[in-house]
Structures are given as structure tokens and as C-alpha cells.
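Progress narrative, work stream C.
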Amino acid sequence: RGGFLFITTPNVASFTSRIKLIFGGYPNGLEYCVNEYTNGHIRAYTPSILRKQLNKNKFKIIKITSPNLLFPVKSGLIPNFIKNRMIYLSDLTKNLGEQIVVVARK
């Protein structure tokens, strides 16, 4: 109580996941079982579902965003002015980026 909660998780509804699905691919954030030694890992969150889950558990959301609209902005190959534009677009859409980032508290 009184502390902060920081969450990052893949966004299953990201722009690239939507494009992958159109062409028969598998969305980001879902891993299926590939052999008898793996079980897969499911992180099927969208910003709105994560918001509902946090509200249900009485967390106050301070900020929720979905950065990295088309590519990881930490890549050294991408000029800063392009990175800054992509971060800005991600903050505007809040639901198409590769990741969901939440800051909340009880």
C-alpha cells in the first residue's frame, strides 16, 4: 500500500500484431508449445484489458501508454528524430505500440 506498481507487457493488439494476423502470422505476446519441453507463455493483454484488471483490483492508474509503435526505439540504427516521432505517435494512440507500460498505485 502506498507504493508504485510498474508493469511492462507485450501488447497483443499492437500494429505489427494486427499486420501479422492479416497475413496468417502469430501475434506478439503469445508463444505456443513448440515441443514437449515448452508450455508456451501467454500474455494476451491490450491496454484496455490491463486497465480494467487494475481498476478491478483497486489500483489507481497514473499513466498507461503503448510505446514502440513500429520498431524498438532503443535501436542505435534509427535516428533520434524518427524515434521521437514514433514515441509521440505511440503516446497519441496509446494502444498500437509493441509494449504496454503502466504506472499505478494502490
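Work stream C, second folded protein:
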Amino acid sequence: MHFVFYDLETTGLNIGSDKTVEIAAYHMAEKASFSSFIDPGMPIPSEATRIHGITNEMVSGCASFNTVFLQFIEFCGKDAILVAHNNNRFDQPFMLAEANSHGITIPPWEYIDSLLWARKYRRDLPNHALQNLRNFYAIPPLQEHRALDDVLILATIFEKMTKGLSPEQVLTLAKQEGEFRMPFGKYQGRHLDDVPESYLVWLEKKGALEDPQNSKIKEHLLSIRGES
């Protein structure tokens, strides 16, 4: 399995009636990118243009969704895990609705919502918006809200948040319900309460808990000792 990070820019937020004006993706394993404007067949409202900067002139004469999306499917491949920030509430349902309207069958891809991943495994952060995560991980800014730029930023952030985990391991953890679980190591996937204190102490001695990404684990160890 492999990660494909993707993002849509649209004429609005109404799933089923608004249309895609740009789709972009980054295939992490192949280090390849995909980006294309789409002629939505309808005017782009000025309020949408103010957000993503895409005008009617920029998409005029571009390929249709049907053409571009078939290229996107080929780019992603069949064994892909598609990752988007706010995937579950926007990108995936929007994409599925528009593909369905064109009679396109989407491959049986897996999906991960990186926003939900951050909320689950980075509870120490006060805000999990993409640009706030970018600031936290000290990633230089690109052109915000344009699809490919946001995709490349997301790929870098997600790689840092899931350091050392395979795509299959990340997918397993993303599907697990409930409280914070160990994101790595021999006790990966277990609730912190089920991880032996001796193992947490070993991680501490190795310096692993000094990584800001592992602050939740460090806090748990301190609480066991009565130091927090």
C-alpha cells in the first residue's frame, strides 16, 4: 500500500451541487505529483475565488472533471491510501458525489483524514488546522489554499506525525476507536494504560519522549509517577 495525499479546490462547499475546479495529489512512494485545473461548467463565485485564487479565466477551456478524474485514478493506482485534511467531511464525499454524477467507479481505495489523526495523536496542540500544524513543524509556507501547495505541506506534516510507521500500520491506527494509543513500538496500538511503565521508562532513557510529537506519552509517564 502507498500514500497519496490529495486536495480539491471547488466552486463552493455544497456537496452534490458545487463542482471541482482543481485537483492535486502527491504520490509519496514515487515522489510524483499530479495537478490539474478543471472547467466546472459553471461560474466560480467570487467568494470561492477569494479563498483559492482560481478565476473563471484560469479554468476556461480546461479539461472536464470526467477527463481529469480518470487521469487522477491512474495516477493514484489501485492500492492507494488517500489522505486529505478534513477528508471525511469534505474531500472524500465531495469527490465521490461528483464522480458518481459522471458515472465513474472509484477504485476501492482506503482513506485517512489527517485532521482526525492530528486530533487523536496530537492532543497537546490547541489547533489542528493545516497551517497551524505547518507552523508547529516549522515547515516553510507555500501558496496557501492552492491544491498542490496544500498537498505538499500535508505530505510533509503527515510524514512527521507518523514517523517510523508503514502505511499499513498508520491505516490500522487510524481505524482504531477510542483514546490515545501508542503510535509506534512493540506496544503499538495499545491504550497507554495497557503499556508497561518499564517500557515507557526505557523510551524515556532513549530520549524518545523528548520529541514534541511524543509529549502525550511523556505526560502519561509523569502522571504515573505523580509528577504532573
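The chain has a mean pLDDT of 88. No further action is required on this item.
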